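ok trying again, last paste got cut off:
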Amino acid sequence: MYTKHLLACVLLIAGGNSAHAQEPGNVHPSLTEKFVLDAGMFFPSRSFEIHVDGNIEGGNPSIDFEDEFGLNKSDETFAIDFGWRFGKKWSLRTQYFDSSGSRSAVLDEDIEWNDVIFGQGTTAVAGQDFSVLRVFFGRQFATSERHDFGVGAGLHWLEIGAFIEGNIIVGGAPNVFRRESVNVAAPLPNIGVWYKYSLSPKWALKSRYDYLNADIGDYNGSMTNAALGFNYQILENFGIGLGYNFFELDLGMTKSDWRGEVNSRYEGLYVFASAYW
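nice, full thing came through this time. structure:
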């Protein structure tokens, strides 16, 4: 909670500072070029908790995959951001990253999911898949060439899946092998702001903040997607950068194949290479 609100405050302060005009001059190419591509590795601290409604009274608690099955809480994943500036004030931005993993563990206690009980002392395998594709249209508002401040709206396409497989308990005793899985693809709209500032022709500050809290069809909940970082130009069309990315999702679902919720958070360093042209 504190991380996302801090990023939001940085964006609001930065946006307010854009009202102070500066002398025109050479600026970082990420503010002036038509296309900007950032690609690199995201090193998030991850949490993934899932709940699937069942029919057993008082059963089916949420399952923390990292704690229950020893999945890595920190992992690296490829991430990419692409921006296209068309016209004087309009832009299209995209972002993509995915995270997945699986692991086997001997269960310290019974795990109940979707009215199926995986027995204590048996070996179970669990895994999760999570991917985010962000498409965002925005309009720029700025008072000098060193500032790029804008607002807009977009869509996050989320693909979420999880599974557990192992011996289940039937009639009070471990019995047959069973695999239980859930999957969902969810389009979630959002609104957001961004701000870039050219500290010099070589250095640029980049930040953005997207947010959603709504009840849309089969889905309800909140989502935050934010980033803050710096970019350094090495060559005319090439640079490197370091940033901090934050993504949090609390999503409830009432679909026929998955009634429940997922609570997930990814936050950490993003190291990337940039191309501008």
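cool. The mean pLDDT is 84. Residues 2-101+131-156+191-276 form a domain with the Lipocalin fold (CATH 2.40.128).
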